[in-house]
Amino acid sequence: MTLNLVFLGPPGVGKGTYAKELSKRYNIPHISTGDIFREEIRKGTELGKKVKSYVERGELVPDEIVIEVVRKRLSQDDCKRGFILDGFPRTINQAIALDSIVKVDLVFNFVAPKSVIIERLSGRRICQKCGAIYHIKFNPPKRPGICDKCGGPLYQREDDKPEVIEERLRVYEKQTAPIVDYYRKKGILVEVDASRNMEEVIKDCEQILKAKGLLQ
After folding, report:
1. How many separate domains does the chain show?
2. 25 an active-site residue?
3. Is residue 146 within 8 Å of residue 155, measured between CB atoms?
4. Which end of the chain is more exposed for a tag (fewer CB within 10 A), N or C?
């Protein structure tokens, strides 16, 4: 039995965290286009340079680039039992392209108030050395600005600054609202309140999957 899931929701709603947890529980890959792109930027590849120029302007990466990256990733062996797509699709073109690549079983749309999202994102700090993620309020390091794991310096990503977050949320709403309608019309979209703690959100997701007959 395969479990092909799509996670939708604005930046900072926590979908990456939920995806990682469910990925561990059901042994299916968590595929984040954001993670793939950040890795390419870190390596300084041609794709990374292209992506970086869009990210720094708070814009979305063009469809053709994203679709090709996802198509390539979904063709790998570890996706045969299913996957969780996080951050894709973000446009109707991407959703239609995904339908031509694979059958999606269920789409979770995670929602939370804007104030919650801004607090979560603007407080995030990342280790320059090992990539560990902290939050100045919810998960602070033992010593301010220093990674607990490797002692590396922590930094705030450009796109986690409040003014950039506002723009990201505007772009997200404008470009992604039609996707929610697209999947709602197909009858495979469920909304989940993501303003609660992770355990409650995960429990909700599992109950929905069981009720839909997608989990044993």
Report:
1. 1
2. no
3. no
4. C
